[in-house]
Amino acid sequence: MARATTTADKEKEARASRSEVYADYLKAAATYRDRGYDAWRAVDARAKDPKIPYNAIRPTLANFEIARRAYRDQANRVAVYGSPKAWAAQKTITSSMLSTLAPVQVADKVGGPDFKLFNAGYKEFIMVFCEDAQAMNVPDCRPARGEDVGATR
After folding, report:
1. Could you read off the pLDDT tens digit of each residue along the chain, which spans 153 residues?
2. Which residues have CB under 8 Å from 54's CB, separation 6+?
3. CA pair distance 107, 21, nearest whole angstrom
4. Could you list the residue range(s) of the whole structural domain that residue 135 is in?
5. Residue 5 lies in a domain
């Protein structure tokens, strides 16, 4: 006989799902930010030097498009599986970058992605990750406080 799913089981399953979704989202966000900056630089360089052929920047723009789609897919997963706090943090990150909805105009953001806003949203998202993915409330989420967890002393 199948055992009834308890609230604790559902919470454990939600934490496991969110852990995977949130990690994938953060990776896609960082990649999209970087490819967006690369695309902005390529378009800006071509605007300053019309001798640069479009084909020279085409691979950079193709990589940007791949990252844009991957980011949009991961943001959609946050919409489905994430908490309201995760969705709000995702919106901060998204607002810092080039548009994820077609048609994309690389020139929309002067200077490329807003790294300061991205970093604020990223830290906010990591704090939500700590809250949503752990069974117990752990108030000292080091990455969300901006600590370099890879540093040694």
Report:
1. 456 668 777 777 877 888 899 999 999 999 999 998 898 889 888 888 989 999 999 999 999 999 999 999 999 999 999 999 999 999 999 888 876 555 555 554 555 678 888 888 888 898 888 888 776 655 566 555 555 444 433
2. 46
3. 30
4. 11-145
5. no
